[in-house]
Amino acid sequence: MLRYIVPFHPKRHPHFFTDVLVIGGGLAGCRAALAVDPSLNVLLICKDGLDNSNSVNAQGGIAAVWAKTDTLQEHIEDTFVAGGELCDKRVVEHVVNCGPSEIRNLIDIGTKFDKTSGGEIMLGREGGHRRDRILHANGDSTGREVMRSLIAELRQRSNVRIWENTFALDLLTVSDRCRGAIVYWKKQGETELIWAKQTILACGGIGQVYRETTNPTIATGDGVAMAYRAGAAIRDMEFVQFHPTVLYIAGSSRSLISEAMRGEGARLVDRNGYEFMRDYDSRGDLAPRDVVSLSIVRHLQKTNTSNVYLDLTHKPKEWIYSRFPGIAATCKRFGIDVAVDKIPVRPGTHFAMGGVVVDIDGRTTISGLWAAGEVSSTGLHGANRLASNSLLESLVYGESTGRGASKIAKMMTNDYDVELIESKPLMPIDQVLQEQQSIDLADICNSLKSLLWRNAGVIRNESGLRAALDDTLQWSRYIFSQHFSNIAGWEVQNMLIVARLIIEGALSRCETRGAHNREDYPKKLPNAEHTVIVNDYQL
Q: Does the active-site annotation cover 283?
């Protein structure tokens, strides 16, 4: 069983002590830090800067019942329908009910949501929602505005310390309890042992294990891999959501084209201008994401083409530029005028429904460890996330983990078991590490991403998944025998763990449900069950 990816000797490295450690600087992490009791010390670490996360890059909005014509029950029902009957009813009700209060909190700290000419908050609609309930900010830059206000509030808190450009190597566990983490400071080029009474994982998604993804380069699944190595239960990793509309231009980054575009009337068409979605689903362009992504892939196979198009050219030009300024600017860099030209798109990896198992308060299966945001599996999304529910989930679980971790931390003493941890090795004695050989990490990384995209992408089957598992295990055997001293090596190790979890989950789920499509098992099984994996990693 592999517990730690680097050898580490506490006597040779500095110690840092805090009441609550938050790993991750996105929406969930910032909300968690703000929810910690001001009398406690908080250390928030993030892999890059606070300005680089899936949360900051979120174009879509936050789903919440805000209009008088909307109801909590309708939002709950829409979430269940999208979730493929695998949502946790209690969790869905909890998150949806907390939505309005979290929106009010954001407004109170200065978040500026878009408003109508009459001064009311403007509400949009996205696939899977029966009502207009999506709050946006600055058109298609909701995440950036929400994070701006949260970060500003966070920097005013005297009890919160922020370490940017800090890579979390592994969770520190003592007697099956999480007591903090081992981190690497990029600037100083050294590791440090952080002792914490309570630790909150909020380090985002896994999108970079796939070739086509909307996720930033930092989304390498570090949180899931760390939690798995520490022995936490991991659930439903086979449910990976592929966003149906990702800008597809050779040489460009795979930029997200917000689902709000379809909510505002954009039509999916093929190269001949044919609106094909109703050939695959009666809900057309506003079907849930899993349905639209699968429909696009099927249509690409049928027409033998590489992409389809989003067409918004029937809308007024000035309205398009004001409603989608970010998308318009991105497309303009590649010579595309969104008010005149059709936008080339195809599906790309966007969001992981699975992750570290947590209860309704955000506790993981390891004492002292909490999780919030995309790294977690709360039960809200089921087999397929309803559009714009992710930012809502991050707010609700960020708040509950911060509050819950504070409550327990306040009752704990400052006994960090330093002597205990110094008396035992962090690496298994029989784990033989070799000096780093000449390995092309970029090639391994690209090969893994392409393998997952081909064999564990939108459409899957047993032969492809087994081939992917064989290759992943083969690469793991020699990658994990290496002693890396750089982030690129540690990331590849984390990605290999995440890839195996996705593949094994996909192999064990012999059905088609939500975002998981098995062409050899096209029907949904009568009983919806979760896939849970606990660390038994053998190399």
A: no
